[in-house]
Amino acid sequence: MRKGGHAIFTKLLPSKAPGLKEEADAAKIQSISAKYQAADEGHLVFPVPPDFTVPAEVGVVHRRLPYAEVYFLANTSNRAVQGKAAFRVKGMEPAWWDPFTGKMTHADLDLTLAPYESRVLVWAKEPAPAAPASSAIAPLDLSADWQLPPWPGEFYSGVFTYERNATVPDALVKAPRVVLNFGEGTPVDPNAGRRAANGMRAWLESPVREAAQVYVNGKRAGAVWKAPFEVDVTGLLKSGENSFRIEVANTALNVLAKNPLPDYKDLIAKYGERFQAQDMQSVQPLPSGLMGRVKLVAK
User: Fold this and answer.
1) For position 198, what pLDDT does the model report?
2) Can you give the pTM of this predicted structure?
3) Mind listing the domains of the chain with CATH numbers?
């Protein structure tokens, strides 16, 4: 200890010396332990701060690299989370790393995470570029006037295309960052009359059912399938008229809900029964397409 060593206590602080011959040292050990005993309700005080402090809904995984400290943060709830975060890192600069684009921006530690959103926080010696300042430019609502082919019906599974043109103001085009936002998801109460499902699911209804590819002026901007439900369209816009195409795909559940299952009798006779369909009589078609308001938003 005098030469820089560390003492680690688990569960209880030591109060006795080992061995009968060391009983005389018990008082000394108790005196040392008392330094780490808090005055309030007997809680233990440890000189080492926690590795991280985040809101209760946020899960964290920490990986230490020779050149960086990397934290994976995930909002495990179906609601947005805001709050302060702190990390036991010194001499390094924090940066958010976007695994979808590879871009890094300097991170402040005021967390704002959409439902189920995850991020990677990297601490390194080199500072990352500053994030663009928040913009005061008004959003452009694109929710109306989409050209749609006739909807094939509630039992359709496949791709459905939304198309429209819109005039985008010069101020929005020149904003440092612009996203096409599809709205907020709707939290679902897992106990509201639903049978517990096998496996796991997100208790959040998406404004895009179920995923979409976005094209601006004929160029692919990206996909939307998770919160926050938005796609970065920076650099794809032009002043004046722009074309937008959104190809939305749902799942195979709707077509499965239409008809009874095929008769597998001949297959079973030849190959044996390899599986049994379960709960197919309860399958219902789900809403499909764009459920929320679509806006161009300057960040």
Assistant:
1) 56
2) 0.77
3) 12-47 (no CATH), 52-124 (2.60.40.1180), 140-188+203-298 (2.60.120)
Question: pLDDT per residue over 119-162, tens digit each?
Answer: 999 999 999 999 878 778 999 999 999 999 998 889 999 999 99
163: tokens are: 């198309």
Is the model's pLDDT at 40 over the cut of 50? no
